[in-house]
Fold these 2 entries.
Entry 1:
Amino acid sequence: MAATLRFYHPSLSIFVFFCISQLSALESIGDWTGRLTLNISSRAQVILGIGFEIQSDSIGSGNDGMPDYSNTSVPYDLLPSEKTRFYSDMITGFRFCRLALGLYFRGTTPDKLNIVERFPGQAAGLAEMARETGLEGFEVEYWSPPPGWKSTNAYINGKLKGFDTATLQTFAKAVTADALYLKSVGINPVWWGLQNEPPVGTNNDCIYSCCWYNVQSTTSPSRLQQRPFAKLFLTRSFMRHHGAALSTLP
């Protein structure tokens, strides 16, 4: 069985035909044609920009973990000519870059409570990339908090060492310090995620950076210091559209 859907754009008079096969839901009614009219005079949603993710450090996945001996990465390893081509042909036009803390950006301070660059030039390379391509900033998210906060004392597996109020308040200050560090080295956070895939790792079976949160624990650290933290990195555009909502947060 095959069916054709016809999509009509009134202002351009363009018909686009899609052939749909093997759809059990349509088999009972046979071949058919439908028409969808796009009303470009009425705005429903505006997408202000999209992002990409950068592998700015070396990982070996399950075979080799996160090796300290290698810093193979982008843009750090690119020759000057290839870096220029990378910027102009691949990245220019994007609005954000997703940055995975604890994975692709995972150096730590001596006490292992804060994240910094792991090798000289790592942060500068990312900052240059943002400047040269006109990125608004970075979508920063922990794949894992620094090992000093983890029950495993490692990026892989584990959860936060504690979820009492005192620990969470101290942790919130450390998160703020990470944001300030990134800003200080030219990596401007415009979006922040507390944890990638928070349900992952409950059985300590991760092969990459993770940190497990349950429903109750996830809400607590994100609510601590959220207004002062937000003011550190949110863009004027975001504040203009969502500032009123932020001001009502408890």
Entry 2:
Amino acid sequence: MKVGELILLGGHKFRLLKADEYSNKYMEANYEAFTENDIIKILEKIRLEGSSSPSIDEYSLNLIKSLDKNCDGWISYSDFYDGIRNHGIFLSPQEEYALMRKFDHNHDGKVSLEEFYHALIGK
């Protein structure tokens, strides 16, 4: 079972929106078995979309600028997902969830674009 999956319980359908902390840490530690939790592969998927750009730095900077509409260095989950999709990058709900866990350290519902940028360029 993974985030985003539809489960049937007592004849009712539910979508799994997130996992408990123990399950998250287990999936992150065992990313070989839970490949949609592998941050390196998720970032590679995002970088691949920019392969036609002159450099990964330029691609990453342009991506970040397009995501950060109000130029404050932070972006909400929904704006992040929408912005990524608008760039032709389609992630599974589990991959999106894994990214949020990686870049929202204080769990306030916002992604640090500075950290995201440095992860994209590999620094």
